Amino acid sequence: MTTFVRASLDRPAYTLPGYYFSSTDIFIREQDRIFARTWVCVGRSEDVATAGAYRLIEVAGESLILLRDQTGQLHAHCNVCRHRGARLCTELQGKLGETIVCPYHAWTYRLDGTLATARYMQDAPGFRCEEWPLLSAAVAEWDGFVFVSLAEQPVAFERAFAPLIGKFQAWDSERLRCGAQIVYEVAANWKLIIANYSECYHCPLIHPELVAVSPWQSGRNDLTSGPFLGGYMDLKHESMTLDGHTRRPPLPGLNAEDRRRVYYYSIFPNLLLSLHPDYVMAHRLIPQRPDATTIVCSWYFAPEVMATPDFDPSDAVEFWDRTNRQDWRVCELSQQGVSSRAYRPGPYAQSEGLLWQFDQEYLRIMGEE
Asked: Which of 170, 283, 311, 343 could form a disulfide with 253 if both were Cys (CB 3.0 to 4.6 A apart)?
């Protein structure tokens, strides 16, 4: 049985020093030690649902071609020709035939990354096509989300994500489909955004609409250390909308208890997953600079609900778009403050225990424990 507890601290705990949010050197190290070595969320399986469908993604400054081959296997190939390094694909998304052709010298790769033909290379001493496949990142699918790892020897996804495998089975989010999406550009460090998501200490001051439908002190957590953190908050009515009501039915796999809660989890390093009774919402963070983050916020619904003539996601979208913008504003204010010479680490409140736990995991991966 899952045990949920309040986020709490058993000792004085303090925020990170300001340079962790403003330093270009720190940002570069994060790209190398975190985003180039861990499993990073890059989208959804439905983004590349059919053979030949591809999408360009960027992880730690590397361009990757996310695609499915003719067998349905997912790949994340480096967008670099093995000949002289030219970019292979330039459009952000599209549909390939059976091959990827380099626009420079027409080296031709199969969708699985193997080199099919290389013009006039038969005369090159010792050249063999089988020795020159595209370099690829490790790729995994979980609950409908796609993750990649640039690590040379990544930890097996099943091992890295062991605490989450099967945990959200009741939502069956693999079958859910995107019904709405908003992309935000936020002038704040990615860690400040995760910290804001992980506490409701600020909610009665910043989110009047949220506290009207979900008691801000009702939070309880079951993942309280490591790379995955979070738990639930109570729900007064049937959904997180401006009035707490919706015409959508609850997702069919949920029990009575889950229909009265919303679950919030931060999945290190860049996915914020919110599981509602009638939909799933995800924030995917893409750090751009120390003080700038792109956030892709998506709402996922049951396909049979989306197929109804009166399907309308606007009640959920309007609620969270308003809440998001309230959050982004205070995150930007925090960014301005922690970038000041006057800033010194401040004490965490008892209700901010998850933030301190995030800091510990972050420092561990950065090698700064």
From this structure: 170
